[in-house]
Automatic annotation (TrEMBL):
Record-stated family: Belongs to the peptidase M50B family.
GO molecular function, one term: metalloendopeptidase activity
Keyword Membrane: yes
Signal peptide start and end residues: none
Source organism: Mycobacteroides abscessus 1948
Pfam families on file: PDZ_2 (PF13180), Peptidase_M50 (PF02163)
Entry's transmembrane regions: 160-181, 223-244
PDZ domain sequence ranges: 6-62
Name of the protein this chain belongs to: Zinc metalloprotease Rip1
Length: 251
């Protein structure tokens, strides 16, 4: 578990990495079990946990809040303790020497995952449309600058500045990768045209021919307009999804 702010969980002494065994007398083995148990509780409740291999008991004051119920189609009262469920990864510290290869590994990982994510963009159209028409928004669906701004605001609101800077870096990385796609009007498209001209002229020079004429961009305009239509359409789709059914980190 990871506590967010001065909520009931943090006030009771729950820490990141604690494994909850029971909540209010109900045994839990999965995150779904724990959420279901907590939502049905109110007031002071005993939580049996394991911390650093040792069992402990904590008294947690479960408070009532509102959560959206998809089946009911409205907000319903549920119990909450102000904690998020996640796989706990201990924070690792680096010195100036070990930070260099670690940074390279991180950049490589981000680059690979970004390319994979871009390749999956066309397959996410259906999921985005479903989220607009009432289905639950999947966490792995693309988002627009509207959604990214909302997510950044949530991290700042919860004083998670490291996550904020990571999100900002990933956003810039993704925008840079998309801009390098070999399609006009992206920069990658201009690079592709320039590369084509260079290779063509090298081949012509090797054959004793004069360099060819520059590529006629007017002939490429239909393809450019098609790319623009697709990009603008996808942008409008993601913006609509981010307004109607945004991704929320803390809910």
């Amino acid at each position: 578990m990871a506590c967010t702010g001065e909520g009931p969980a943090a006030l009771a002494g729950l820490r990141a990495g604690d494994q909850v065994l029971t909540a209010g007398g109900t045994s839990v083995s999965t995150s779904t079990d724990l959420v279901t148990a907590i939502r049905g509780l109110r007031g002071p409740q005993v939580f049996e946990i394991v911390r650093d291999g040792k069992p402990q008991s904590l008294m947690v004051n479960v408070t009532e809040t509102q959560r959206w119920d998809e089946k009911a189609g409205k907000l319903v009262p549920v119990g909450a303790v102000g904690a998020s469920l996640s796989t706990y990864v201990p924070q690792k510290h680096y010195n100036p020497v070990t930070a260099i290869p670690a940074t390279g590994n991180l950049i490589g990982t981000v680059a690979v995952e970004t390319v994979k994510a871009i390749g999956k963009i066309p397959m996410k159209v259906g999921a985005l449309w479903d989220s607009i028409t009432g289905s639950e928004r999947a966490m792995d669906t693309p988002m627009s600058i509207v959604g990214a701004s909302r997510m950044g605001g949530e991290t700042v609101e919860h004083d998670m500045w490291i996550m904020f800077w990571i999100l900002l870096a990933q956003l810039n990385f993704a925008l840079g990768a998309i801009n390098l796609l070999p399609l006009l009007p992206f920069d990658g498209g201009h690079i592709a045209v320039a590369t084509y001209e260079k290779v063509r002229n090298m081949i012509r020079s090797a054959r004793g021919l004069a360099v060819g004429a520059p590529v006629n961009y007017m002939k490429l305009m239909p393809a450019t307009y098609l790319v623009l239509v697709v990009v603008v359409g996808y942008m409008l789709l993601t913006i609509t999804a981010d307004i109607v059914n945004p991704i929320r980190l803390f809910q």
